[in-house]
Each structure stands twice: as C-alpha cells, then as structure tokens.
Predict the 3D structure of the following.
Amino acid sequence: MFFVQNNFIFAAFLRENLFKRAIWFNFAVPKSTFMKPIFIAGPCVIENADVLDEVASELVRLKKIYQLEIYFKASFDKANRTSLSSFRGPGLERGLQMLADVKSKYHLPLLTDIHESYQAAPVAEVVDVLQIPAFLCRQTDLLVAAAQTGKPVNIKKAQFLSGLDMQYPVEKARQSGAMEVWLTERGNSFGYNNLVVDFRNIPDMLRWTPRVVMDCTHSVQRPGAAGGATGGNREFVPAMALAAKAFGANGFFFETHPDPDRALSDGPNMLRLEDLKKVIKSLLEL
C-alpha cells in the first residue's frame, strides 16, 4: 500500500511539473487535453451475470457521484488467450444478450471488442463503441467493417507500433466511414514477457484524433509470464493513470473485478472493484 500511495504522489508531481515546463518552453498543449475525460471499465471477459451486475452497479454509483461519462466494457470472446484451455467467454450470441441486459438494466453505454469482420454488424446493434484489439489494429478488413457500422471505433495501439504509426489505422477507419475514432495506449513489448509504456505516444496520437485513452490495466501486463497465462502488476495501475493524464490522455480504461485473484482472465493486472473509486477520484482532482 505504501508503494502504491507513493506512485500516486509521484504521478501527481509529474503532471503538475509537466504542464509548468510545457508553458516555460512554449510547448503547445493540445486543446483536446482539456476535453472532459471519459472512463471505460468492466471485467476483462463476461464470466457470469452476477459479476456483470456487481460491476455495473458500482459504475452507476460512481457515475452519479462524479457525473462521469463512463462506458461498461466486457468481452464476449477472448480470442487471443495464451492457452487453448483458457476461458474465452460465452461467445457472440449469448455474450451480446448479456451485454444488452446490462444496458437495459443499468442504462450504461457499452464498449466491446471484435476480432473478426463478420462480428462488427451484430455487435453494433447492441453496443455503443466497437473496439479493435491491439494485435489486430492493422487489419484492414476489420477496421473497415467496424467503421461501416457508423459507431465510434476505439483502436488500441499495437504493442509493436509507435503513436505516430497510428496515423494509418485512423485513416483506414475514417476513409471507410467512421465519424469518430479513438486511440488507446496499452504499452509496447519490452523484451520477453514484459511491456513498457512510452508516454510520448499519447501526445503523438493526439495528432491523429482528439480522444486518446490510456489502458491503465493492460499496460501493466506481463504477457505469457504466468505459466500458460498472462501475469501482471496491478499495483502500478494508479500511477499509470496519473502519469498518462500528465501527458494529455483524456480517456481512462480500467479492467476491474470484485475479486481479481479469482477472475477467469487477466486477473493479475485487473484493478480491484473496491479501488476504482479512489483511482477515478485522483484523476478528477488533478
């Protein structure tokens, strides 16, 4: 706990001094930096209705407290799990029905990811934002299919690309009809089984779109580092969020779960649901 609290202090210090230095050296701070932030939160994968209800209830509570624009996120199919035996989710049909139930019951906008082009149209009938996974962000057919639904498209930056490289996925989506495109930072591969965040990618991606999201939980993953599953270091999530805000992020993505240590996917890097309020509050106070 001491370590996490000090990461809050360090990131807050970083943000305050970054903007002071930006003014001192006459750096142009993008106007989009000051857009009202959005929040994306939810369990990594749809496990069962009880988990969805518990997380959605907390998001509604936080939305009322802080007047947030917050999107409920959960995946109907995790098609890129480390092992064939890993839990993937309920699948397209059942998963969309469960997401539709969340929307109907809690009146939260929805975001979910698609992995194949044929999924775009049926998913767009239920959710409000389509997400393109990082590994697939250069897949032209997938980007075109998502764009043609008319829904906002959130493109996650690949672990092997720079922020400047994301000009081209954005162009593919816009030229295919997308009226609103977001970009999401989620770290870059750093040797084996590790990621590192180059926060310069955030202002670089603000060149291409006014909405840049920081994926604060996937960025602390340790891919494939848990013996047939993905590991992670959730203790760094609060500092990742605050540092990203210092660099101009105006959206924040948190996978969260009531009991991450028993979660069926990405547990080691998911934020405990009980800690979500504190992290959001810290972002809004800066």
